[in-house]
Amino acid sequence: MNGTPTPILHRIGGKPERGTSGRTSPVTNPATGRVTGEVVLADATDVDQAVRAALGAFPAWRDASLSRRSQILFAFRELLSARRDEVAAILTAEHGKVLSDAAGEVARGLEVVEFACGAPHLLKGGFSESASSQVDVYSIRQPLGVVGVISPFNFPAMVPLWFVPIALAAGNTVVLKPSEKDPSAAGWLADLFAEAGLPDGVLNVVHGDKEAVDALLTHPDVQSISFVGSTPVAKYVYETGTAHGKRVQALGGAKNHMLVLPDADLDLAADAAVNAGFGSAGERCMAISALVAVEPIGDELVAKIVDRMGKLRTGDGARTDVRPDMGPLVTGAHRDRVAAFVGAGVDEGAELVVDGRGAPDDAEPGGFWLRPTLFDKVTPTMSIYTEEIFGPVLSVVRADTYDEGLALINANRYGNGTAIFTNDGGAARRFQNEVTVGMVGINVPIPVPMAYYSFGGWKSSLFGDAHAYGAEGFQFFTRGKVVTQRWLDPSHGGINLGFPQNG
Ligand code: NAD
Predict the structure, then answer these.
(1) Could you read off the pLDDT of 321-335 as tens digits, one per residue?
(2) pLDDT of 455 over the 90 cut
(3) Which class of enzymes does this protein belong to (predicted)?
(4) Where in the sequence numbering do the catalytic residues fall?
(5) How many whole angstroms separate alpha carbon 405 and alpha carbon 130?
(6) H helix or E strand, kind and range, residue 234
(7) Does residue 102 contact residue 203 with C-beta atoms inside 8 Å?
(8) pLDDT digits over 45-95, tens only?
């Protein structure tokens, strides 16, 4: 882009706000490397302004009828569905993912909106008539109040949509803090919610970095935090938020393994490895980054993967003339970090089968390029195996048995997603039972649960006990209350200081 970068402002109380911090951060188009926007970064005063707007909007929103809340969600669903290309273009321009992938991200977010439209059903309580003589007991679920949502760069629309529709449907008001690397989609979604009829102050967006996150984590009027990002930050968010009395769900990083047994359909497995390893340039928390091939299929499988990689096109995701399969990485710093891992893999003795370092021929040289990269004969002590790379780098590890492969996956500190490829139903069933990972695919490489299940990993991939969306989402964004009622009649039980019992 030529000219002045576009200012990217907070949305507080229904209005764009610059805030008072005076701090900003550049936003780049990863395919060109050029600065296209300048996002304001909130300080504690700006965050407090957003929390106060959300607090002010809470009583009326909490009291809005279930049908009014779901009608607004239905209206939002219609608007988002009709204008999905618009937000997909924003995602491509700031994140770098190709347009078709950006459209997929929006579609997965839409699923959660559709699920949240069912709030009247999902918020129903229980009722026990005559739990004791002339006593009825019933449970209700009530909103928490102001809730905070903090999202990562890799799904700038989908991750906010994992939480915001359910939080709103349950009667909460929200302060959303998106990633400062690609912040525009969040503001676009907030504007669309306003167009759908959401009252001012019910959804606020504050942009920022650690300073804004810390202000949310310690603010006394924020009741809960839903965080998605890297493991060290997720752990910090969980510890700080809970120390300040908040309910916290903090989803962290991943190192997702795909286990390929000798009886698997190797063409299917090779397709899956390429799709799940290099889609969105490997910047997915459910990307496959380690493929465990159970011998003797290693050589044949690697050959099939290499063959497919030769046909992949890397380029500017916005180009509709060539339609690349994969775009650039999100920032120059991230590209350099991933490239450094490739160098480390070579130094540590892994076999670099396909080297993706360097820009594609027809790409803008200033873009943050790194093409698909494949390592074979990776061992569990190498840094390319132990660390989350979060780029288009796939590592093949050879194992001699199913048990050896399973032990590798279970020894890993992450437990987000995993997949087994086999034609043996018994082996697949054993795997689903024995693997210590939260989301499991059987001949499915990226097993992201549908909106009516819940999303969440195990071990260092999730801090807290509530997974995202699905029924657990409604649990997280509400508190239970149980009412025991008796309507007086002429008989009176008299004084009894004993603990109440059924009778
Ligand atoms: P990140 O941890 O750097 O940032 C996430 C959020 O935290 C951003 O909003 C950022 O502004 C904020 N933040 C960054 N550093 C902080 C700090 N020191 N203190 C407080 N807040 C801070 O993550 P990212 O690079 O934006 O996203 C990629 C990571 O997210 C990967 O590790 C990926 O696996 C993970 N991720 C996980 C899931 C999941 O469902 N488990 C989904 C998507 C992404």
Answers:
(1) 999 999 999 999 999
(2) yes
(3) oxidoreductase
(4) 285
(5) 55
(6) helix 231-243
(7) no
(8) 999 999 999 999 999 999 999 999 999 999 999 999 999 999 999 999 999
Ligand 1 atom, smallest distance to 153 CA: 26
54 contacts: CB under 8 Å, gap ≥ 6 = 146, 173, 174, 175, 201, 202, 204
Half-sphere exposure (CA, 13 Å, Cβ side) for 444?
11
Confidence (pTM): 0.97
Is 141 in a helix, a strand, or coil? strand
Residue of 225, 241, 106 lying closest to 172 (CA atoms): 225
* Residue that the structure tokens 């920022």 belong to: 208
Residue ranges of domains in the chain, CATH in brackets:
6-252+461-482 (3.40.605.10), 256-442 (3.40.309.10)
Q: Which atom of ligand 1 is nearest the CA belonging to 390?
A: 31
Ordered DSSP codes for 32-84: TTEEEEEEEE--HHHHHHHHHHHHHHHHHHHHS-HHHHHHHHHHHHHHHHHTH
Question: Tell me, what's the pLDDT at 2?
Answer: 55
CA–CA gap between residue 437 and residue 432 (Å, rounded):
9
Q: Which protein residues are within 6 Å of ligand 1, measured from CB? A: 150-155, 177, 179-180, 209-210, 213, 228-230, 233, 236, 251-254, 285, 388, 390, 416, 457, 461
Residues forming beta bridges with residue 479, ordered by sequence position: 142
Q: How far is the CA of 230 from the centre of ligand 1 (A)?
A: 4
The rounded Å distance from CA 231 to ligand 1 centre is 8
**Ligand 1 nearest-atom number relative to CA 217:** 20
